[in-house]
Amino acid sequence: AAVARKWLHSQYGVTFKGCMSQLGDIVIPFESWDQVSANPFFAANASIVPELEAYMDSLRKAGDSCGARIKVVAQNVPVGWGQPIYDKLDADIAFAMMGINAVKGVEIGAGFNCVAQKGSEGDELTPEGFAGNQSGGVLGGISSGQDITVSIAIKPTSSIRTPRRSVDRDGQPVMVETLGRHDPCVGIRATPIAEAMLALVLMDQALRHRAQCGDVSTGRAG
Questions:
Q1: What is the C-alpha to C-alpha distance for residues 29 and 193, in angstroms, rounded to an integer?
Q2: Considering only CA atoms, which of 195, 194, 150 is closest in space to residue 8?
Q3: Which has the higher per-residue pLDDT, 185 or 158?
Q4: Distance CA 83, CA 198 (A)
Q5: What distance separates the 2 farthest-apart alpha carbons in the chain?
Q6: What DSSP letter does each residue of 90-156 carry, written as one string?
Q7: How many CB atoms within 10 Å of residue 142?
Q8: What is the tens place of the pLDDT at every residue in 69-80?
Q9: What secondary structure letter does DSSP report for 78?
Q10: Which distant-in-sequence residues (6+ apart) come within 8 Å of 135 by Cβ?
């Protein structure tokens, strides 16, 4: 993924950013990308870090865990990467993100929020480019030139100290309590993993496009 990021940036100017946008039931308001690298939560808001630390400490003491929501963005992606059917760009992204351990949901652009939207709120195209980016940079399975925006949902850690019901080899009911190492939230470390996965997908798509089109450039819209 490190090679993919360097090559995509040198060849096309593509850059990647990511942050944690929610920890358990705490929504993290976005403030600045500059703050992401300054805290262990990869939060784009330094002022909320003490609250996140206190929340993690309470979960640790209770022997429980929580999930997280991670947002990743790829900027300066050229127009035309992807396919209209079998190798759709957004389908490949979703496939890859679901391959990350503990991920249970993937959103491209507006994601599930589009359920409540009207058609009049979709991405309008103007002579200056797209007026919005509800589709997350992918239209019809092909990159539109807008930022590719992806969010993933990470489930709570299952290996916790809190006793949980299960069954033994004979199918008999037992109680399971995981002692030793305990992760209140595995999502805390997921931001660079999601960035890396997006880079690998875009690297594959860039090579496919180059093989098919021979580096023919269509320019960028938006």
A1: 21
A2: 195
A3: 185
A4: 17
A5: 68
A6: HHHHHHHHHTSTTEEEEEETTGGGGGG--GGGS--EETTEES--TTTTEETTEE-SSPEEEEEEEPP
A7: 18
A8: 999 999 999 999
A9: P
A10: 108, 109, 110, 122, 123, 144, 146
Q: Rounded to an integer, what is the distance from CA 203 to the centroid of its chain?
A: 17
Q: Helices 191-213 & 2-12, crossing angle to 10 degrees?
A: 50
Distance CA(99)–CA(206), nearest Å, equals 20
Per residue in 171-203, pLDDT (tens digit) is 999 998 877 667 789 999 999 999 999 999 999
Angle made by CA atoms 42, 47, 49, in degrees to the nearest 5: 45
Give CA angle at 94 (92, 98), nearest 5°.
120
What is the C-alpha separation between 64 and 162, in angstroms, rounded? 6
